[in-house]
Specification:
The chain is mainly alpha-helical. The protein folds into 2 domains: 63 residues, Winged helix-like DNA-binding domain superfamily/Winged helix DNA-binding domain (Arc Repressor Mutant, subunit A), CATH 1.10.10.10; 159 residues, Four Helix Bundle (Hemerythrin (Met), subunit A). The protein has 10 helices and 3 strands. The chain has a 3-stranded antiparallel sheet with strand order 1-3-2. The radius of gyration is 18 Å and the shape is globular. The termini are far apart. The relative contact order is 0.14.
């Protein structure tokens, strides 16, 4: 099996196109049920149809889009149960990754990466400003922390599955999460992100101290809390 790429890697051209299309889906520019026409996407992203076609196949493997013969690709619609299952699977897999890393021990490169990650997270989440750009940066920093654990665990099968699963709640969140007051919503998301950073730090401390059971529990609990918040948001907006 080839090496699985994560946010720690510089993307190839096709991967960059895949991320761009994924972003259009996550941001709601391409709504569930929308038909994804290759030429339209190629024109929109100023690329050829070849990387677009390869990207759509990759997104179909992730479960974000569907493919039907004679109909082509469409953005997939998700429900709460699918999101819950995605989170539950991530809890098991990422918890196992944390346990593996705690047993193996952290190397200097990973420690340095995480410490730089935390320093920037503090600036982003506890600074005087909070806007869409900083929120996007937090999303990247969040995944970078999780990816650092996956990379150190060095299990390509586990990493492949986690990378695919993590996109499902994001499209679900943007599609179903409804906020009547945008500014309060941003503040809420910032507060939740600050709590998530505290969880990351607790996991990191357990990894440094080589506490497998504690590291696994903390990371699983972190994902469990995110899952319940996501499902709660869905339940509220569907009433």
């Amino acid at each position: 099996m080839g090496r699985i790429r994560t946010t720690l890697d510089k993307p190839t051209r096709t991967q960059a196109v895949t991320e761009a299309i994924r972003r259009l889906i996550v941001d709601g520019d391409l709504a569930p049920g929308s038909r994804l026409q290759g030429q339209m996407l190629a024109d929109r992203l100023a690329v050829s149809r070849t990387p677009v076609h390869e990207s759509l196949k990759a997104l179909a493997d992730e479960g974000l889009v569907c493919y039907e013969p004679h109909c082509g690709f469409t953005v997939r619609s998700l429900d709460a149960s699918e999101v819950e299952h995605a989170f539950d699977t991530r809890m098991v897999l990422e918890g196992h990754a944390a346990r593996t890393v705690a047993v193996k021990g952290l190397d200097d490169a990973t420690v340095g990466l995480v410490e730089r990650n935390f320093a920037r997270c503090e600036e982003v989440l506890h600074g005087n400003k909070w806007n869409d750009e900083l929120q996007d940066e937090w999303f990247r920093l969040n995944w970078q922390f999780h990816d650092a654990i996956l990379a150190r665990a060095a299990n390509p099968f586990l990493t492949r599955t986690v990378v695919q699963l993590r996109h499902i709640p994001r499209i679900y969140d943007q599609t179903h999460r409804v906020h009547d007051r945008a500014e309060l919503a941003k503040l809420y998301r910032r507060e939740q992100s600050q709590k998530a950073l505290a969880h990351h730090k607790a996991v990191f401390e357990a990894l440094l101290n080589r506490q497998p059971e504690r590291a696994e529990f903390l990371l699983r609990d972190h994902i469990f809390i995110n899952r319940d918040e996501m499902i709660g948001n869905f339940t509220t907006t569907r009433r």
